[in-house]
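Work package 3, deliverable 3.1, input record:
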Amino acid sequence: MKTLLNKFFGVSGGHQVITRVEAERLQLDTQWQDPDLPQKQLEIVKRELAQIKANHKFPAHMQALIDQMKLLALTKPTVLEIGCSSGYYNEILQLAGVDMQYTGCDYSSAFIDLAKQFYPSLPFDVCDATALPYQDQQFDIAISGCCILHILDYPKAIQETARVSKRYAVFSRTPVIHLAPTTYTKKMGYGVPMIEIIFNETELLRFFHAAGLRVIDIITFGKGPHLPGSKESTFSKTYLCEKV
Ligand SMILES: C[S@@+](CC[C@H](N)C(=O)[O-])C[C@H]1O[C@@H](n2cnc3c(N)ncnc32)[C@H](O)[C@@H]1O
C-alpha cells in the first residue's frame, strides 16, 4: 500500500488542509521516524548526487543554501544541520566548495545510523529539534534543514536553532504563503502521511525576530504546493538570519 501511494504522489504530494487539532491528534509530526523512510529517500539522494557530479549543476533548492553559505564567506565555520536525514547536505556543500566543520542531527535514529555509515568521520546525533543537546552559541552557523515545516512546536524549534548559533541561522526550503494564515496540511511523503506546515510569512518573520534573529537574505527558489480551495500561491524560500 505504502509503495502504491509513493508511486502515485512521488516524494511529496496529495496535500489536504487540516486543522492543527487534527494534526496533533494524528501525531503527524512523528512520521519521519518511520524506519522505512531513510532507504526510500536514499535512492533519490543517490540519483541527485550522481546527476550533480555528472553535470556540475545543483537543483535550485540546494543552490539557495550554497549561495547563502558563500555569501557569509567564513573560513571553515562550525556548522550544525538540524534535520540532516542521512547527512547528504554535508557532501553537497563540500561539492559546491563550501569548506566547514559539519555536525548533523536528526530525531530519526534510522537516518542517523545511515549518516554514520556514509560519513563515519563526522559527528551525528539523534535529537529533537525542539530540545537540542548543544551549548548556547556552539556553532557559527545553525542550519534548520527543511524541518520546521514538519514540527508542530516550530516556535520552539526556531528558538533552539537561534540558541545554538553563535552568528548565523539558515532556515532552508521553507514553504510560505503571504495572505492566508499559517496553514496545516497533511500530505504523503515517501509513502507515509505527514504534516507540512505552510507558514504565513509575516508570522514566521515575527518568530525569527522573537528568537533574536534578523533576516539578512531571502532566496525564493520555487512555487507550490498548491493548496486545495485556495487561489493564492505558496512559495519555497530559504532564509538567512543573523543573531542580533
Ligand atoms: C525534508 S527532510 C530534510 C533533509 C535535509 N536537511 C534537506 O534539506 O534536504 C526533513 C528532516 O527533518 C527531520 N525531522 C523532522 N522533525 C524533526 C524533529 N522534531 N527534530 C529533528 N529532526 C526532525 C526528519 O527526520 C528529516 O530527516
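Residues 1-9 have pLDDT under 50 and may be disordered.
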